[in-house]
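BUG-322 | component: ligand-complex export | severity: low

The export step for zinc ion jobs runs without errors, but we want the raw record kept on the ticket for reference. Input record follows.
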Amino acid sequence: MQINLFYSEGFKRHCPEPSHPESPLRSEAIFKFLLSGPLKERIKLRTPRKATFEELYLVHEKDYLLALEEACFQGRFSFGGADNQISFDTFEVARLAAGAALEAVNLAREGEKISFCPVRPPGHHALPGRALGFCFLNNCALAARYWLEYGGISRLVILDWDAHHGNGIQEIFYEDPRVLYISLHEDPRLSFPGTGFPEERGAGPGKGYNFNFPFPAGADDKKYLELFHKKIIPLLETFAPEGIIIACGFDAHRDDDFSLLNLTSQAFYEMSKLLGNFAGCRNIPLISLLEGGYDLESLVVCAERHLQGLVEGLKESAKRAP
Ligand SMILES: [Zn+2]
């Protein structure tokens, strides 16, 4: 079982202030940890390319993209809010992150089962015309649109277990029945960006294809896994996706200060194993894109456990095949 790992030194060139939590060290730390650990032999390194403007138009507005590019070139400090700090290369790095997501889709089309993109900046808060919450380009949404447009599939799931609600993904696909968006996150009354209530269920033809599962502060592995068994897997079985994108944030880990959730790395292993098993039984590809996760020590361990879970789940499904 091969894991396609998309990494570029270029991810380090988006440089918020040193005190900013979305640090240039994040992607590199994951990359180095994975390559020095037990998954090393399975990893096939892939080099991302920059997404083109045409590809970015699948989700984002032209004026927004040009304004972001211009702000970076002008040396501005932030774009669309103090949280979204930028540096000269931010737009180019964001294009590289988005390009990794698109190339992962191309690999999925060629039959690759697992691609992991520990990219930065993250994407799930970004809207078509607005940067938000450290996010500039919505990598998951771009991958989903690209997959539907060019990948020969007609429905996919985006499963988002970042501690924060992926408002951008929800908004982009709110009326689209081809994308089932499922988000597990901290109670929006406590947590940025304040969306992600269970009653937000989609609209128009997309009604019934948006699921939010908020958790109270202190929710642990047991609560998440219970939901996975009782709700998430049955939802996937009913929807029967042809591909799965994981909006893979690790800030619900108990050591991460960005939420009051209390998961351990074991939860990410177990949830991934269930997804791997589901995908293996149906022979569909998995693409995992890094979102949040700001405590470097738990971030790298969670990333490894996540990939081990996917591999184990896929192996398990193969054993059960006739
Ligand atoms: Zn987050």
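Assignee comment: Attached the raw record above. The mean pLDDT is 97.
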